[in-house]
Design goal:
255 residues, mainly alpha, two-stranded antiparallel sheet, 71% helix
């Protein structure tokens, strides 16, 4: 029972990890590309912001909407780059006043939750995700890839693909967004241990296994398209930056 969920869960975690890494790479190298041309850090930050502005707006709007939905007061809505005291560039911010552990965790994770739903809608996966696409072992077979690549047979795939990329690049929670998750994680861990000790975990898992496997396939299908889009952009940035560095005889050092 448990073993049927292991490989799909690993697959989804791997895709999220890859998206996080690609998102960081793209943000850094958008700045690097602009810096190569202008030698100005301010222009580099502005260039990155302008490219990612639609995703940044959706990110902050997600925080605001979730806070309003949960009845948590908010103050300020900023969608503009600002350097914090710790020298970190913050693309936007929504300040919340109050809220409990669960509400703050939901507000922090709102961009990821809303972004995931939008990715699923844009991919058309609510009509039925590819079967077993979450199982990472299927990624090495043609049969596992064919249903995902069928997305590119749609006549409207270019604008959908752009929307998938811009949303997936900005949907990942920042360090401040993830901060409220730690206490919630402990609550979930304690609750899970309690269910196991009570002897009901196996029965509960058996009842939800089917929907849970479908959910993992939905997530994997959505994240796969996002990975493809981010890989394409990251590759384009690498090639452009390499060409410029060779032409100008200099390169950007990333910390």
């Amino acid at each position: 029972m448990w073993t049927e969920l292991i490989h799909p869960t690993i697959g989804v975690i791997l895709l999220i990890f890859i998206l996080v890494r690609l998102s960081g790479y793209i943000s850094a190298h958008l700045q690097g590309l602009a810096y190569l041309l202008t030698r100005s850090q301010s222009v580099a930050v502005l260039f990155m912001f302008l490219v990612l502005a639609p995703g940044v707006f959706i990110h902050e709007l997600s925080h605001w909407l979730m806070a309003r939905l949960l009845g948590v007061p908010t103050k300020g809505f900023r969608v503009w780059p600002k350097r914090t005291r710790s020298r970190i560039i913050q693309m936007g911010a929504v300040e919340v006043r109050g809220g409990g552990t669960i509400s703050l965790a939901l507000i922090g994770m709102a961009p990821f939750l809303l972004g995931t739903i939008v990715l699923i809608l844009l991919g058309g996966w609510f009509q039925g995700p590819p079967h077993h696409i979450a199982d990472w072992r299927t990624w090495f077979s043609r049969e596992g890839w064919t249903p995902v690549l069928a997305f590119f047979h749609r006549p409207d795939w270019p604008w959908r693909f752009y929307a998938i990329w811009i949303i997936s690049t900005s949907m990942m929670p920042s360090a401040a967004d993830r901060a409220p998750l730690r206490p919630l994680g402990w609550l979930l861990l304690i609750g899970s241990v309690g269910l196991i000790l009570a002897g009901v975990a196996g029965t509960l898992l058996q009842q939800i296994q089917g929907p849970l496997l479908r959910l993992l396939d939905l997530l994997a299908a959505a994240f796969w398209l996002a990975v493809i889009g981010n890989l394409a952009v990251a590759g384009g940035l690498w090639l452009t930056e390499f060409a410029l560095s060779t032409l100008l005889g200099t390169r950007v050092e990333y910390g």
